[in-house]
Amino acid sequence: MRRRCLMIKQIFIHAFCLTLLFVYTFAYPSKTFSDERKAISPPPDLSEQTQVCIICHKNYTPGIVEDWLRSRHSKTTPERALKKPALERRISSEIIPESLQTVAVGCYECHSQNPSAHKDNFEHFGFKINVIVSPNDCKICHSAEADQYSVSKKAYALDNLQKNPQYHSLVEAIVSTKEIQDDKIIHLNASDSAKAESCYACHGTRVTVLGMKKISSGMGDIYVPDLTNWPNQGVGRINPDESRGSCTSCHPRHSFSIEIARKPYTCSQCHIEPDVPAFNIYHESKHGNIFSSNQHEWNWNNVPWRVGKDFQAPTCATCHNSLIATPDSKVIVPRTHDFGARLWVRIFGLIYSHPQPKDGRTYSIKNKEGQSLPTSLTGELASEYLIDENEQMRRQTEMKKVCQGCHSTDWANKHFDRLNDTIVETDKMVSSATQLLLKAWKEGLADASNPFDEEIEHLWIRQWLFYANSVRYASAMEGPDYAAFKNGWWELTTTLNKIRDLIQTKRK
């Protein structure tokens, strides 16, 4: 009762301040706002619940409020969004609950959905609130995107680590604490903290609710859910409502900006060297050169995104998931939030390249040795679990459509022919290293029970996880130094020599 009275007092104290906040923000926009932001009409009505949220949070978490005030969510309603032509919409649901249609997408509208499914739902100053806004909550307005994402490899990124014995062993070998006992290195179990700040920071964690806990705040002591493995914004996070994913991985809260998601810096949070050098190679490439020089002139917010008019070179989003159109708004490729939908071959993270999996749950794959891998150690495909040639061709055609927005058909065809050659050649280099490792295991020079914990095995891992990946990415994105000397062919050759020399030394 005392907390409720305090809340009511705060409401009266800050009501006038809230009025001034809106007048200042929208009648006198900051000079740092873009012309597009200045042109947006005055804010729609806020729900009473969201107004109460803002009254307190503009004092206690002001950065969140200011970020949200700059967002599109604060300046429109689902009803207005649905009145746009279909091609220009950022909202894919055709039917929106009546209670949400005519109010801005505010604090309460996002943090109060599906309370019965949310184990993190709790009473917060008279309101029932979820700590985590999950993809199932965003799905109310963005149903197509949520459905597409839900079947993707990204949605299952955590399970694909934890439920795959080979991947799990690799994680444990990398991030576990080691002790020395009798001159031997002993691997301890990796801690939750070590995993959360490394592999699981990108792949996601399982967030569970232990109960309630008391914390001190500007409003006094309050009780909030006690969450495990939190905070986390990994792409495969399993949320307290059992949904998978984190929209804020790419659209960070509380602006949820399409501009941020379209820029390569967002992908660089996880897709960076040495194992996934996409951002580094993009930065070196001609496309990256144009982006770095001209990005300040591009229209990052237009939907559809028009090649040549809104942007002059692709980013990660252009090729992999954005709705791309011609300058006169004819669709080249539709939007997708299944980030493998335009990919026909998988070039990183595994020992050999291979056709894309049929299912996002890659832990269900079994090779001929019964391992959860898409190929055997000798490179034979687990074809039953991988897309066929027709589907590969269909996806490659979709990707070529993006390229042909700027390049000729012959240019695009020859680019992908070269990539195909590179994939074959790098797989051969991995195969050569694997043959040496298999020989070392057979001769007892290394222990095959854990393929990730000895020096010779570390060299073998580098061959496929770092160097073959780098050459393939460099071919796909045209980063020549990463194909040659920077984790490229030089390292592939040098590492093969090191593995051979180490075997010869161990034989003596």
Summarize the structure.
With 508 residues, this protein is mainly α.
Can you tell me about this structure?
With 508 residues, the chain is mainly alpha-helical. It has helices at 2-27, 35-39, 48-60, 62-69, 78-82, 98-101, 107-111, 135-138, 143-150, 157-162, 165-175, 192-196, 199-203, 258-262, 264-267, 278-284, 286-294, 316-320, 389-403, 409-442, 455-477, 480-484, 489-507; strands spanning 121-124, 127-130, 178-181, 184-187, 209-217, 220-227, 305-306, 324-325, 331-333, 345-346, 354-355. Among the domains are: 1-111, no CATH class; 141-249, no CATH class; 408-508. The protein contains 23 helices and 11 strands. The strands form 5 sheets. A 3-stranded mixed beta sheet has the order 7-8-9, with helices on one face. A hairpin with a 2-residue loop joins β1 and β2.
Our estimate of the beta-strand percent is 5-15%
Number of strands: 11
Indicate the multimeric state.
single chain
> Between the first and last Cα atoms, what is the distance in angstroms?
80 Å
Tell me the major beta sheet. Answer: 3 strands, mixed
- Extract low-pLDDT stretches: 1-42
Mean pLDDT, nearest integer? Answer: 92
Radius of gyration: 26 Å
Please count the helical segments.
23
Keyphrases for this structure?
508 residues; mainly alpha; three-stranded mixed sheet; disordered N terminus
